[in-house]
Amino acid sequence: MLRLSKHLYHATNSIKRVTAAVEMLRQAQHDVLFSALLLLLLLFAAAVSPAVAQAPNDNMENRRVLQLEETVVSNTANCTIQLACLNKALTGKQVQYHNDQWFEFVPPQSGRYFVNVSGQQCRRARGVQLIVLAGQPCQPATYRLLSCSSLGNPNDVFVTLQLAKGQPYLLELDGYTGDFCRFEVQISRSPKGIPNTAPLSSSSHVQNGRLVEVGWYLPDTINANFCTLWRRPADGQTSTLVRRLPVARNGYGRPQTNFSVLDTLPTAGKQNVFEYRVTADLPTGPPRLISRHDVGWTPANGLGSRLPVPRYGHPVPDTVHLRLAAYKPGAKLTVELSDALTGRVVHSVELVKKKSFAEQRVLPVRRFFPEAVSAFRIRITDHSTPYSTSGEIINYLL
To answer: Which of 189, 248, 338, 378 is geometrically suited to a Cys-Cys bond with 345, CB 3.0 to 4.6 A?
Structure first.
């Protein structure tokens, strides 16, 4: 009887052990499923989260070395500036340093290279600015400025450089007038995109509502095979190809010099300004920028009407007084000054409103417009709320 009781005791303990083992297996299975679900949630959160890590090449000492023909993807979000590594005297007022990052390139051979900037995705559609320097890293007194390009739009663009073999060059990319951009940068022997240079000629237009005829002159000193017309909304993203025209030649081999293209502006519900660019494609070498021209259109009673664009004959005032009374003391504000017709931002300043804001009210204007304009615009953005809110937008017609 005692022996049977022992057997029953051991059997009962065995059953308990088996039951415990089964429960542990179920718990382990539950933990695995829970861990897998948690991992999926973390991956999903990372995919949809707007947070962007600071670029590792935010500082000069961690600059990214570019290899020829290598494409690097980067982002200016959360980047800072190193004042000790800047020489603002070289760039003057052309550049507003904001969220820069650094690259380095050592040419394997002397000759012509192209910095290709593409794939720009920008919060304010202004693009990045590019500075190319020769000199010792973070020793501003040794810097020599090779190129300073404020792209001003998120097109795929290129900048042409003449570089010496074995000479290290520093490249600084920054969001233009405070923009935040994701971009791709490459140094190549071949250009990609639209040239970022001063126009070589001029263009004009005749407009009837949304129908626009854009005309331009091609200097006969440019041996081009084709001319390409591009259109971009002044406050939009990349340019759209409108037409590519072959350059005809007469019996003496002289090229055609006058061109025109009819285009229909996209439908819009409010006043819009569109930028036209003309590039010339050469048999060898990069394209050349021939002209840049702005065309405006606004709907009236459902029908397109002409927005006067001939422009530039009215001087701007020296200063204007900002309307800051509506904002609370301590409010973090961004004030932007732009050409009201083209949307081009010429000046941006950040300030914290003081209780006594008389000095802050005065905004210099004329010095930022080397030429007279027909209208300018001031936009004030309040960053004190969880979501930045735009205050009033003031248009000044001259």
So the answer is: 338
Which pLDDT band holds residue 301 (cuts at 50, 70, 90)? very low
* 166 and 230 housed in the same domain: no
CB 192 within 8 A of CB 114: yes
**Nearest to 63, CA basis, from 82, 48, 44:** 82
Asked if 112 and 159 touch (Cβ cutoff 8 Å), the reply is no
Answer whether residue 311 shows pLDDT above 70: no
In which order are the strands placed within the sheet that holds 332-339? Answer: 345-352, 332-339, 375-382, 389-397
Does 67 share its domain with 186? yes
**pLDDT for 326-360, tens place per residue?**
788 888 888 888 776 556 678 888 888 888 877 77
Going by C-beta distance under 8 Å and a sequence separation of 6 or more, which residues neighbour residue 65? 103, 104, 105, 106
Rounded Cα gap, residues 75 and 122, in angstroms: 10
State how far Cα 119 lies from the chain centre: 9
Which range among 54-68, 144-158, 183-197, 307-321 shows the weakest confidence by mean pLDDT?
307-321
Question: Per the structure, how many domains does the chain have?
Answer: 4
Residue 336, amino acid: E
Same structural domain for residues 65 and 45?
Answer: no
* Burial (CB count within 10 angstroms: exposed 0-12, middle 13-18, buried 19+), residue 363: middle
Residues 186 and 103 reside in one and the same domain = yes
Residue 114 pLDDT greater than 90, yes or no = yes
Domain assignment of residue 363, yes or no: yes
Q: What does the buried/exposed string (b/e) look like for 116-153 if buried means 16 or more CB atoms within 10 Å of the residue's CB?
A: bbbebebebbbbbbbbbbebeebebeebeebbbbbbbb
* Residue 75, strand partner residues: 182
pTM (two decimals): 0.53
The answer for residues whose C-beta is within 8 angstroms of residue 362's C-beta and 6 or more apart is 319, 320, 321, 322
Q: Is 278 contained in some domain?
A: yes
pLDDT at 144 over 70: yes
Quote the domain boundaries for residue 354: 319-397
Task: Identify the CATH number of the domain in which residue 254 sits.
Answer: 2.60.40.10
Q: Is 313 domain-assigned? A: no
288 and 338 belong to one structural domain: no
Per-residue CA distances from 124 to 38, 129, 180, 203, 297 (Å): 35, 14, 7, 27, 22
